Amino acid sequence: MTRNSPTDALVPAPPWSSARPRRRARSARPPLDREQIATAGLRIVDEEGADALSLRRLADELGVAPMSIYWHVKDKAELLELIGHQVFAEIEIPPLRGDWRDQLRDLHRAMLAGVLRHPNTTDILIGRARYGPGGLALFERILSILLAAGFSPESAFDAYSSLYLFTLGFTATAGRSPEFREIQRQGVLYLGSLPEDQFPAIRAVAPVIGRRSLDEQFELALDVVVEGIAARLT
User: Fold this and answer.
1) Measured at the alpha carbon of residue 161, what is the angle toward residues 160 and 162, in degrees to the nearest 5?
2) pTM for the full model?
3) Count of beta carbons in the 10 Å neighbourhood of residue 159
4) pLDDT digits (tens, 9 = 90+) for 190-205
């Protein structure tokens, strides 16, 4: 696999970016840069969630004055965007193999693995973070696969949207904390106790709820989405 890490210099900056040239260091301290900021911010989000992140909290994490952060990002919104860029850049784009269906499956498995490494960033990834170098590289690869398969530009984007919404939606509900598992267990027990004459369909399905692993659920749903896209091409 190749790392999804095109350099910022190769991608034009979007109009809302406030990235500025690096200021010359005034002391022996190594100069702070946006990559260091993103890495430290992502560490806070991973450990404590996005609500815990602030520019002051980040400055404490890096051992710098808050104004040092403001030199590189204008506000928390831009900081979150930068963190999203970092997550997308960590996703490894797999080599092309098989037909276009296989290629889409491989790529979205890689996306799932990348996002699940940072489950607290799901909300961040649906915003402007997609327009960073890593997000654009993924977008380009998916569209290239679909266009090469014979989809029109409009159909290719429709297919991309379906896969993107499915993957991020899946990751948003993939939390398997002990609390989640206990809620799920109680819910299944409750469904199995409902009156069968009033809820025959629920009672028939309740015994099989939760029998698939997270990976099995993803593969099953991914097949449904990909084959549905293939049916539209046919």
Assistant:
1) 90
2) 0.79
3) 24
4) 999 999 999 999 999 9
CA distance 134 to 225: 24
Tokens 């290629």 -> residue: 103
What are residue 211's phi and psi, to 5 degrees? -80, -15
Q: How far lies 189's CA from each of 90, 182, 194, 205, in Å?
A: 40, 11, 9, 12
Taking residues 31-56, report their average pLDDT. Answer: 91
**pLDDT of residue 26 exceeding 80:** no
Q: At which residue do the structure tokens 């040239």 appear? A: 21
**Looking at the predicted structure, is the pLDDT value of residue 173 above 80?**
no
d(CA 119, CA 162): 21
Nearest to 125 by CA among 161, 88, 162: 88
Q: How far apart are CA 213 and CA 143, in angstroms?
A: 30
